[in-house]
Protein backbone atom coordinates (compact mmCIF):
# COMPACT_ATOMS: atom_id res chain seq x y z
CA UNK A 1 0.00 0.00 0.00
CA UNK A 2 1.36 3.37 -1.02
CA UNK A 3 1.78 6.15 1.53
CA UNK A 4 -0.89 8.43 -0.01
CA UNK A 5 -3.31 5.52 -0.17
CA UNK A 6 -2.63 4.68 3.48
CA UNK A 7 -3.09 8.31 4.61
CA UNK A 8 -6.35 8.57 2.66
CA UNK A 9 -7.62 5.28 4.11
CA UNK A 10 -6.79 6.41 7.65
CA UNK A 11 -8.44 9.78 6.99
CA UNK A 12 -11.56 8.14 5.59
CA UNK A 13 -12.06 5.75 8.52
CA UNK A 14 -10.81 8.30 11.06
CA UNK A 15 -13.17 11.15 10.21
CA UNK A 16 -14.61 11.34 6.67
CA UNK A 17 -16.80 8.28 7.17
CA UNK A 18 -18.63 10.22 9.91
CA UNK A 19 -19.22 13.43 7.98
CA UNK A 20 -22.84 14.30 7.11
CA UNK A 21 -24.69 12.63 4.23
CA UNK A 22 -24.28 14.26 0.83
CA UNK A 23 -27.84 15.60 0.71
CA UNK A 24 -27.78 17.39 4.09
CA UNK A 25 -27.58 21.15 4.46
CA UNK A 26 -25.22 22.97 4.86
CA UNK A 27 -22.24 20.54 4.87
CA UNK A 28 -23.41 17.74 2.58
CA UNK A 29 -21.70 18.92 -0.60
CA UNK A 30 -18.30 19.40 1.03
CA UNK A 31 -18.63 16.03 2.81
CA UNK A 32 -19.29 14.33 -0.53
CA UNK A 33 -16.24 16.02 -2.08
CA UNK A 34 -13.96 15.02 0.80
CA UNK A 35 -15.06 11.36 0.66
CA UNK A 36 -14.72 11.36 -3.14
CA UNK A 37 -11.17 12.74 -3.00
CA UNK A 38 -10.10 10.21 -0.38
CA UNK A 39 -11.67 7.24 -2.18
CA UNK A 40 -10.19 8.33 -5.50
CA UNK A 41 -6.81 7.73 -3.85
CA UNK A 42 -7.90 4.46 -2.22
CA UNK A 43 -9.94 2.59 -4.85
CA UNK A 44 -8.54 0.92 -7.96
CA UNK A 45 -10.93 3.06 -10.03
CA UNK A 46 -13.26 5.91 -9.11
CA UNK A 47 -15.53 7.29 -11.83
CA UNK A 48 -16.60 10.91 -12.29
CA UNK A 49 -19.31 12.02 -9.86
CA UNK A 50 -19.12 8.80 -7.79
CA UNK A 51 -20.65 9.19 -4.35
CA UNK A 52 -19.50 7.36 -1.24
CA UNK A 53 -22.07 8.08 1.44
CA UNK A 54 -21.72 8.48 5.19
CA UNK A 55 -20.73 5.31 7.04
CA UNK A 56 -19.81 3.28 3.93
CA UNK A 57 -17.41 0.41 4.66
CA UNK A 58 -15.19 -1.16 2.00
CA UNK A 59 -12.28 -2.79 3.85
CA UNK A 60 -8.93 -1.65 2.49
CA UNK A 61 -10.64 -0.65 -0.77
CA UNK A 62 -7.60 -1.38 -2.93
CA UNK A 63 -9.55 -3.63 -5.34
CA UNK A 64 -12.81 -1.64 -5.34
CA UNK A 65 -13.95 -0.04 -8.58
CA UNK A 66 -16.90 2.35 -8.79
CA UNK A 67 -18.15 3.78 -12.09
CA UNK A 68 -19.32 7.25 -13.02
CA UNK A 69 -22.50 8.60 -11.40
CA UNK A 70 -22.65 5.61 -9.03
CA UNK A 71 -23.07 5.60 -5.28
CA UNK A 72 -22.39 3.44 -2.26
CA UNK A 73 -25.33 4.00 0.09
CA UNK A 74 -25.37 5.26 3.68
CA UNK A 75 -23.92 2.64 6.08
CA UNK A 76 -23.41 0.14 3.26
CA UNK A 77 -20.76 -2.58 3.40
CA UNK A 78 -19.03 -3.93 0.32
CA UNK A 79 -16.18 -6.39 -0.07
CA UNK A 80 -12.72 -5.28 -1.10
CA UNK A 81 -13.04 -7.04 -4.48
CA UNK A 82 -16.26 -5.36 -5.67
CA UNK A 83 -16.76 -3.73 -9.07
CA UNK A 84 -19.67 -1.30 -9.36
CA UNK A 85 -20.55 -0.18 -12.89
CA UNK A 86 -21.78 3.20 -14.16
CA UNK A 87 -25.05 4.79 -13.01
CA UNK A 88 -25.63 2.40 -10.08
CA UNK A 89 -27.59 3.56 -7.03
CA UNK A 90 -27.04 1.48 -3.90
CA UNK A 91 -29.58 2.00 -1.14
CA UNK A 92 -28.76 2.52 2.53
CA UNK A 93 -27.61 -0.36 4.74
CA UNK A 94 -26.78 -2.63 1.78
CA UNK A 95 -24.44 -5.54 2.45
CA UNK A 96 -22.55 -7.05 -0.49
CA UNK A 97 -20.97 -10.34 0.51
CA UNK A 98 -18.73 -12.59 -1.50
CA UNK A 99 -19.60 -16.16 -0.70
CA UNK A 100 -16.28 -17.88 -0.19
CA UNK A 101 -17.19 -20.59 2.28
CA UNK A 102 -20.77 -21.89 1.89
CA UNK A 103 -22.37 -24.13 -0.72
CA UNK A 104 -25.80 -22.97 -1.85
CA UNK A 105 -26.40 -24.66 -5.20
CA UNK A 106 -29.45 -26.61 -4.00
CA UNK A 107 -32.60 -24.73 -3.07
CA UNK A 108 -34.41 -27.68 -1.53
CA UNK A 109 -32.16 -27.78 1.55
CA UNK A 110 -30.62 -25.12 3.77
CA UNK A 111 -27.11 -23.79 3.25
CA UNK A 112 -25.92 -25.22 6.54
CA UNK A 113 -27.04 -28.70 5.46
CA UNK A 114 -25.03 -28.36 2.22
CA UNK A 115 -21.76 -27.89 4.09
CA UNK A 116 -18.82 -25.63 3.42
CA UNK A 117 -16.63 -25.35 0.35
CA UNK A 118 -13.33 -27.17 0.53
CA UNK A 119 -11.44 -24.13 -0.69
CA UNK A 120 -12.16 -20.42 -0.79
CA UNK A 121 -12.89 -19.24 -4.34
CA UNK A 122 -12.14 -15.50 -4.20
CA UNK A 123 -14.29 -14.44 -7.12
CA UNK A 124 -15.31 -10.83 -7.56
CA UNK A 125 -18.64 -9.24 -6.85
CA UNK A 126 -19.63 -7.33 -9.99
CA UNK A 127 -22.60 -4.98 -10.28
CA UNK A 128 -23.23 -3.98 -13.90
CA UNK A 129 -24.23 -0.60 -15.35
CA UNK A 130 -27.60 1.13 -14.88
CA UNK A 131 -28.70 -0.90 -11.85
Notes on the structure:
The protein has 131 residues and is of the alpha/beta class. Helix content is 22%, strand content 11%. The protein has helices at residues 3-14, 28-40, 111-114, and strands at 45-46, 51-52, 65-66, 71-72, 82-84, 125-127. Strands 1-3-5-6 form a four-stranded parallel beta sheet, covered by helices on one side. Strand 5 (82-84), helix 3 and strand 6 (125-127) form a beta-alpha-beta unit. It is elongated and about 50 Å long. The model has no long low-confidence stretch (mean pLDDT 89).
What's the helix and strand layout?
Elements: H1 3-14, H2 28-40, E1 45-46, E2 51-52, E3 65-66, E4 71-72, E5 82-84, H3 111-114, E6 125-127
Parallel strand pairs: 1-3, 2-4, 3-5, 5-6
Identify the notable features of this structure and list them briefly.
elongated, 3 helices, alpha/beta, 4-stranded parallel β-sheet, two-stranded parallel ribbon, single chain
